[in-house]
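Need a sequence for this fold. Nothing fancy.
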């Protein structure tokens, strides 16, 4: 098998761009009194669901031998810590400074932050540690990292106990999430991350990796029928179903089927892909974490330009919003090259 799954890397970049387009779509009306391309990217948050399935796949795909041999537990923890926290702390600090400079509010924060409040500082500490004790963090996109941390800790336990026990953990965890979702229809159950329906996305990713590593390949027609049926389940109540527990689980299946086919293409065929798409895919974590910093500043800057030049033409506004999108992606790529990559190299030398 190819060590580097390049087509999957490109899809990771597309997922990051979808999230950026989603947040752009949510801000164009307040700033420019218009929508961006008729809000067709308003459901771009599905990029996060793709990341969750992808995370389950990649971790299982890369560390499957560790699961079998119960090996490299400490190395796994160090790698996961290095991958998530140091760069996140840098971006979170920059965003916190931006909030401070904007009197406690950015256009993507749901509440004003009062830096004189002890409770607010507890909120900040929880956010830095990514503790799953609250539904959101001062850097809004960090909520997804709390799910990643929960998954990494569970996978670490699986490595310690071995593949056989890991399978039991997989099925028990899945059953617990499904049971909680069913009981939530009858009684009020607290929505804790450990049993949230989005956990299914990680488990689906693990299952896809297991199928591929064990060479259990689906017939292309069976795969196509499964994908069509899954998509049809989302159609009747689209887009509202994407925010409901059963819709989120069906979406995880759709993303799993997409990732399965992409990986099969990746490991069975050899293509040359555009370097820019590979670079965006490689920079996806930087784009995902930093894009709110760029949007919070660029929206304000572009609004000043629009107001000063009295721009009301729809085509020009759409073009300006697209340029804003390109600047945000380019900024994320620069952050990757000059911040994330050096930070990863530094900590990998120090801790591994």
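Here you go.
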């Amino acid at each position: 098998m190819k060590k580097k799954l390049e087509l999957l890397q490109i899809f990771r970049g597309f997922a990051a761009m979808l999230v950026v387009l989603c947040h752009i779509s949510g801000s164009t009306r307040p700033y420019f009194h218009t929508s961006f391309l008729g809000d067709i990217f308003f459901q771009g948050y599905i990029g996060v669901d793709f990341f969750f399935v992808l995370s389950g796949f990649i971790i299982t795909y890369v560390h499957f031998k560790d699961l079998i041999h119960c090996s490299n537990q400490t190395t796994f923890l160090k790698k996961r810590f290095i991958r998530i926290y140091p760069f996140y702390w840098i971006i979170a600090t920059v965003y916190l400074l931006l909030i401070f400079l904007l009197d406690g509010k950015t256009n993507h924060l749901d509440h004003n932050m009062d830096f004189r409040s002890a409770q607010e500082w507890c909120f900040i500490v929880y956010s830095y540690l990514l503790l799953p004790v609250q539904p959101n963090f001062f850097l809004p996109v960090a909520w997804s990292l709390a799910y990643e941390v929960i998954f990494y800790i569970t996978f670490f336990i699986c490595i310690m106990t071995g593949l056989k026990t890991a399978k039991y953990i997989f099925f028990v965890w899945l059953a617990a999430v499904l049971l909680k979702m069913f009981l939530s229809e009858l009684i009020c159950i607290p929505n804790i991350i450990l049993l949230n329906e989005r956990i299914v996305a990680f488990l689906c990713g693990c299952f896809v990796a297991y199928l591929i590593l064990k060479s259990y390949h689906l017939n292309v027609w069976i795969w196509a029928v499964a994908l069509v049926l899954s998509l049809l389940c989302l159609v009747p109540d689209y887009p509202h179903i994407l925010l409901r527990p059963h819709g989120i689980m069906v979406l995880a299946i759709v993303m799993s089927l997409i990732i399965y086919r992409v990986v099969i293409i990746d490991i069975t065929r050899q293509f040359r892909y555009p370097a820019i798409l590979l670079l965006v895919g490689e920079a996806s974590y930087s784009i995902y974490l930093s894009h709110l910093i760029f949007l919070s500043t660029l929206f304000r800057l572009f609004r000043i330009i629009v107001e000063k030049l009295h721009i009301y033409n729809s085509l020009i506004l759409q073009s300006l919003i697209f340029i804003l999108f390109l600047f945000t992606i380019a900024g994320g790529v620069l952050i990757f090259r000059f911040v994330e990559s050096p930070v990863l190299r530094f900590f990998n030398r120090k801790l591994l």
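For context: The two ends are 26 Å apart (CA to CA).
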